[in-house]
Every structure is written in structure tokens, then in C-alpha cells.
């Protein structure tokens, strides 16, 4: 046992960061009994990257969670899972239901859909009706007389008609039957299903020119994230 291990045994921490393999060892090794004893009445068990626990590994972790619950859980013991990529397709409510189903299997307890917290998105650019004739005119004029994106201040950048169109196309969209903002479906710039074709049809500007303008606009947004 290292000096660091001895220090942890002598002064058990309030929060212990580990992985499921080491947690299994902590529960089974005689030398860890003091640490396990100190963990009695555990309030929270947090699993990060919840989407990785699938198949055989998921079954192993599910059994481990149940052993932790049986051996260490306090009266108000709670399991928490975090993941940026766990949600499936469908509406937000459908995603909540599916995540709750998976979490219930993994944690060995009922997880209610309303307890699943998703991401909250907000626009950086103003909301505009992209089919509005005035907006289309502004967007067309913007493409015909491009500004140097890197020289714009932030306020000018986010109110730029091109920035508004880019965020509405590549960034966020309003979920059907709700006002909730969700991530837009990924798509390419060029090609039959590319965004440049949509921009070309909307403004009447050649598609190759729309590709160039979109590339410049996206790179301009990237530059602002680095400032």
C-alpha cells in the first residue's frame, strides 16, 4: 500500500473518484475495509459516460451498482448518470422515456422520465423567419457584398443575416409541437442535400458562391469561440 493509499484509509474523503474496476476491488479487498466502513451511509453514486455501459460491461456495472446499494447505501441513496450522447432519436419526451428505461435497468431502481434532465440550448443570433421576404433580401445583399468576418465585432457578427441563417440551419431548430430548441441535424455544405443548395434556391445566387460564403461564415464563428 502506497503512502497515498494509507492517507486515504486514515482520512477517508467525502468524494471518491474511481472506476468500476477499482470499485469492485475496494468492495472485495480486506485491506480496504476501513475505507468501505467509512463509506457506510453513502448518499450518491455518480456514473459518468453512462452511454459506455452496454452489453457485458453494462451487465457487470449494473450488478456492481446493486452490490454497492446493498452494502453501502444510506437512507436517501441516489444514483446519478451523466452522458452527452445517450439520448436517442425522437422528441425530448421520447428521449426522456428511453433514457429513464436504460437508467432503471442499470441502477436497479425506478428512474422516472421527468427526472431525466436534458440540455438547454439558446440562440446566439436573433430568431428570424428565414422565409420572410425582407430577411431574404437582407441575406441576398449580404452575400453579394460580403463583409470581412474577422473584422466584425461580436454584436455585428451575431446580427449578420448570414450568421442567423447558419445558426438556424446548422446549429439549432425548434422541436416540433413545442418551443424547445434542439440541435439541428448534421448536414454537408455541398451536394444534392447540402445547405449551399438551399441557400442558393432561397437567394438565387450560384451554389458554388454559396459554398464559399458558408465556409467563410462557419470559420468566422470558429474564430469567435477562440476569443
UniProtKB/TrEMBL annotation:
Signal peptide annotation: none
Ranges in coiled-coil conformation: none
Domain Helicase ATP-binding: 1-104
Gene3D superfamilies: P-loop containing nucleotide triphosphate hydrolases
PROSITE patterns: HELICASE_ATP_BIND_1
InterPro entries: ATP-dep_Helicase, DEAD/DEAH_box_helicase_dom, Helicase_ATP-bd, P-loop_NTPase
A molecular function GO annotation: ATP hydrolysis activity
Stated name of the protein: Helicase ATP-binding domain-containing protein
Organism, as annotated: Scytonema hofmannii PCC 7110
Amino acid at each position: 500500500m502506497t503512502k497515498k493509499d494509507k492517507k486515504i484509509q486514515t482520512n477517508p474523503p467525502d468524494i471518491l473518484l474511481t472506476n468500476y474496476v477499482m470499485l469492485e476491488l475496494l468492495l472485495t479487498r480486506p485491506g480496504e475495509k476501513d475505507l468501505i466502513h467509512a463509506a457506510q451511509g453513502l448518499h450518491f453514486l455518480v456514473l459518468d459516460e453512462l452511454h459506455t455501459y452496454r452489453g457485458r460491461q453494462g451487465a457487470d456495472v449494473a450488478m456492481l451498482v446493486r452490490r454497492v446499494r446493498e452494502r453501502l447505501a444510506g437512507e436517501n441513496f441516489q444514483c446519478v448518470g451523466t452522458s452527452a450522447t445517450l439520448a436517442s432519436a425522437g422528441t425530448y419526451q421520447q428521449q426522456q422515456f428511453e433514457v429513464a428505461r436504460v437508467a432503471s435497468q442499470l441502477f436497479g431502481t425506478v428512474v422516472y422520465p421527468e427526472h431525466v434532465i436534458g440540455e438547454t440550448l439558446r440562440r446566439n443570433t436573433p430568431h428570424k423567419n428565414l422565409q420572410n421576404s425582407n430577411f431574404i433580401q437582407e441575406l441576398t445583399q449580404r452575400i453579394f457584398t460580403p463583409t470581412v468576418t474577422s473584422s466584425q465585432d461580436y454584436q455585428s457578427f451575431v446580427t449578420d443575416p448570414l450568421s442567423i441563417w447558419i445558426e438556424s440551419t446548422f446549429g439549432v431548430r425548434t422541436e416540433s409541437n413545442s418551443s424547445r430548441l434542439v440541435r439541428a441535424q448534421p448536414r454537408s455544405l455541398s451536394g444534392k442535400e447540402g445547405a449551399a443548395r438551399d441557400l442558393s434556391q432561397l437567394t438565387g445566387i450560384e451554389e458554388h458562391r454559396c459554398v464559399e460564403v458558408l465556409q467563410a461564415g462557419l470559420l468566422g464563428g470558429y474564430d469567435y469561440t477562440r476569443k
